[in-house]
Amino acid sequence: MKHLDGSEIRLIRRTAGLTQTEFGNRIGLSYSTISKIERGDLAATEETVSHICRVFNVDKERLRALKSAVKPFGEGGV
Predict the structure, then answer these.
(1) Distance CA 29, CA 18 (A)
(2) Taking a C-beta distance cutoff of 8 angstroms, is the pair 19, 77 a contact?
(3) 3-class SS at 22?
(4) Contacting residues for 13 by C-beta, under 8 A, at least 6 apart
């Protein structure tokens, strides 16, 4: 299983409408750990990635396809 990068985890969190604290509470991590993962300062473990996918009913391949279809702000995105 490939790791989700921080931007993919951020996308899951924001799509769920959660703050870093709320997201962390749902998966058993502190908001500071979520922040570090989203910034790329810390890699999510395989266990954490699997847990995020289960809790938020996320298929990683569909997430990657969505991420590649969304353009960042300033590049035609919103």
Answers:
(1) 14
(2) no
(3) helix
(4) 20, 23, 34, 38
